[in-house]
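Fold this sequence, please.
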Amino acid sequence: MRLILSTLSVLTAALKRLRANLALTLCAWLAAVTAVALASAIPAYAEAANLRLLRDEIRQQEERAGRSPFALLFRYVGAWNTPLEWERVAPADDYLRREGIPGLDLPIDSFARHARTAPLRLFLASGGETVFLKNAPLGFISGLDDRFRIVDGRMPQLAGNAPALDVMISRAFADEVGLNVGDALTIIASGVRPTPLQARVAAIWEPINQNDPAWFFPPQTLSDVILVAEESFTGPVAEALRNEVDQVLWFVRLGSEGMTGAQAIPLLSRIETVRARVTSVLPGSRLEQGPAEMLQRYQSRVSTLTTQLFVFSTPILALTLYFAALIAALIVRRQSSEIALLKSRGVRSVQILGMYLVEWFIIGAAALAAGLPLGLVFAAVMSRVRSFLDVDFSAASVPLSPGAQSLTFALAVLAITVVAALIPALAATRRTLVDEQQQAARTARPPFWQRAYLDLLLLVPAVYGVYQLQTGGGLFQGSADPFGNPLLVLTPALICFALGLLALRLIPLVLEALARLAAIPAWVAPLVTLRALARQTDNYRGALLLLILTLSLAMYSSTMADAFDGAMRTELTYQVGAMTQLFETGESTERVRPGQPGGQPQLPQRDIREGARFLFVPVSEHLQVPGVRAAARVGRYDATVNIGVGNRQVQLIGIDRSDFPNVITRFDRAWGGGESLGGLMNLLARYPNGVLVSRELLGNGLQVGDALPATLRIYGDQREVRFRIVAAIDLWPGFYPQDGPIVVANLNYIFDEMGGQYPYDVWITRDPLIPIDEVVAGVRRLGIPVIDTLDVATLIAREQARPQRQGLFGVLTIGFLTASALTLLGFMVASIITARRRAIELGMLRALGLSGFGVAAALTLEQLLLIGVGLVTGSGIGAVAALLIVPLMQVGVGPYPGVPAYPPRLAWESMTSIYVAFGVTLAFALLALGVALARIQLFQAVKLGDVN
C-alpha cells in the first residue's frame, strides 16, 4: 500500500509540474509524437511498398504461369515411398482441413483434395463376358465440384449397401474406351487373389476451364482417373484394397488481395510450421509448391528498405531529438532556480533526475499513443509521394497496419528522445545558486561543442563522405542504384551540421562587430538588438541552429530532387522519343507452316517485288482513335555500311520526315550538331536518298556529301542500297549510339529500294488524360495488331513508385514538413521566453526614456535579424552541400543512364515557395510575440528582485 501511495504521489507531483509548464509540455509532447511517428512510419511504409511489389509479382505470375504463387501443394507419392492405407493418411488430412490451412490466417480461394490408387485393371462386364479395357487408377477429388460439368448422368453417390460403386469418368476416357453411362465395370487390383470391385458408370465429366488455376494438375492429366465419392474411397474401396493410397495431395489457393504487411511476414513461419507438422504426421510427404521463396524475397526487401530509409531519416530524427532537447532545456532553464534551491537544501541529483524521468515517462506514454496512428498517416503520405514535396493524394494506397517492427523502432527512438531530454536536467543539477546568478548576467563559458571544436571535427567525416562519393563508394556498394546509397543524405547532413555549428561560432563575432559600428551614430534600437544578440547567444542558439539546418537540408533536398526528376524525365523522354510507341507488325500475307515455332513464315518466302508480304492500315487511321493527336511511322532495321576501311553494323532508322516532328517530344540542337530538327528534315526532303549518320562514322575518308553504300537485311530480304550523307548527328530520340552507329533515312526510300513495305512501329502524340490502355484498345478496334507499347507516362509513374526512390523522397518530404513545423514552433517559443526573461531590461529602458515604439523596433529588428541570418546561412550551406554532392550522383534511368546528360542546378524555384511559407509563418510568430509582450506592464517588469 505504501508503494502504491508513493507512486501516486510521485505521479501527482509530476502532473502538477507538467501543468505548471503546460505550453512547454505540449511542445515536448509534440516533439516526442513526431519522433515516434517518423520511426514507426518507416517500417510501415517499407512493408506497404514491398507488399505492392509482391502483389504485382503475384499478378504477373498468374498471367504467365496460370497458377498463383500463393498456392500450396502438399503431396505424398507412393512410388517414391510406399503405398499406404487411408488410416495412415487420415491424420494429415484432418490436420490440414481443420487446423493447418485455416491457421494460415488468409482467405482460402479454393481447397482441393485428391487421392488415388495405383493403376488397376479395368474390365467391361457385358453379356456375361468381361472385356479388358485398360489400366486406370481409382480415386476421388473434392473441392472442385464447381470447376467441372456433368456431360451425362449424375454425380456418384455413396456406395452404401449397393452392389456396385458409382464411378465417374472423363469425357476423353469415355471416348477412348467407348463407355457410356450405365455400363457395368469390374475393377481388379494386382496381386495374389485380389478382391474385385463391381462398379457402374454414373456420370461423364469435363472441365469447365482447362486453364482454371484451381486445378492442381492440368485436367487432361486426370482424364484416366476413375473417380468415386470420397466416402466410397475411404469406405468400401479402402476395405477391399490393401495399401490403396498410392498418391494423395492437398492443393490450396490462398487469397492475397487483402493481405497486409503484418500478415505477410508471419505467414512464412506459419507455412513452415504446417509443413513440419504434415511431414511428422505423414513421413515422406513434401510441400512441392508454396510462396516461401517469394515471401523470403519480400522479407529481405522489407529489411533492406527499412534499414536504408532509417539511415536516410537519421538527420530528420536528429533534428527532432534536438528540438526535444531544446524544449527540455527551456523547461529546465525555467526551473533552474528551483533546482539550485533544492540542491542547496540537500535533495540529491538522482532524485531531481527521477522527477524529470517520471515527467518524460508520462510525456512518452502519451506520445506513443498518438504517434503510432500518426505514423500510419505519414506512411500513407509517403506511399503517394512522387518527388520532394510532391504528393499525389489521388493515388491509391495499399493497406497499412502497425507491425511489431514499427513498435520496436518507435520505442527505441522514444527512449533516445527521453535520454536527450534528460541531458539538460543532468547539467542543471551540477549548478548552484551562485552559478545561476552568474549565468543570468552573461554566458560563463562557451557550450561544450565549441570548447571541443566539434564543428571542425565534424568536417572530417563530411570530407571523407565526399571522397567516398567521388570514388563511387557507399554504405551499400552492392548496387549502383543511387537511392540505395545513404551517403547521399548522410554526407550533406554532416556538411550542413558542421557548417551550421561553425556559423554559430562566427555569427556572435559578426554581431559584436556590427554592435560596435551601431554605437558610433548612437542608434539605440540597433545597438540594443545587436548587443543582446552578441552577448546572450544562449537565448537564440538552439532555434537559430534548427532554422539553419532545416533550410540547408531543404535546399539540398530540393536540388537533389530536381536532379533526379530532371534526369528521369529527360532520359525517359529520350528513350521513348515520342509520348508513346506502338509496336505493330502489320498483317502477313504468307501462310504459316503448322507447328512452326513463333509463327514465322515458311521458307523460302515470297519475293516482295512480286507480291506484298505484309499488309498495313494507313498510319493516318490512328488519328481516328480518341486521344491520338499525331502519328508517324518509324522503322528500325539491320544494315551494314561500307566506311572505306571495312564494313560496320549500324542501326538503320526509317522515318516519315513530314510526320516525325509532330510526334517528337524533345529534340536538342546539340544532338543534331547544332542543326534544328526542322533543318534536318528539310535536308531529307531535299535529298530523298539522304541519311543522317552518327558522327563516329565520319572520317576514314567519309564526310558530309559522300555516298554511303549499305546492305539492308529486312525480314529475310537483302538489298544493296546507296545513301548520301547529308548531316552528322550525335543523338537521335529513341535510339542510343551505344547500340551501334545511327543512320536515319527516309522510310519510303527504304521501302522503294527494298521493293515493298515491311513492319514498322508507330509513334504517337496523345492526350495525357486518356489512359494508354484505352488508346491501345481503340487502335486494335481498327484491326491494327499492337504487340506492345512503350509509354513515357507509364515509365515515369513506374519509376516514381519504385520503393527506394519513393521512400527516400517520402522521408525527406515528411521530415522537412515536420522539421519545419518544429523549427517554427521552437523559434516562436524561444523568442517569447527570451523576451519575457528580458522584461526587466526592457522595462528599465522604458523607464530611462526609450519609447514603446523603440522597444518594439528593437525586438522586431532582433527577430528579423535572426530570421534573415538563418535564411541566408541555411540557404548558403545547403547550396554548398548541393554543389559538392549532387554532381557526384550517378543519376539516370533507362538502358544507358546519363544519356542524354542532365546538368544539375540549384533549385531556387522550389525554395521560393519555402521562403514564402517560412516568412508568413514567422510573421505570425512575430505577431504572437508582440501580443505576449503587450500584456507585460511596466510595473510588472521593473521591480526589485529577480525575473521570473
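The longest strand covers residues 628-642. Residues 473-479, 591-603, 941-948 have pLDDT under 50 and may be disordered.
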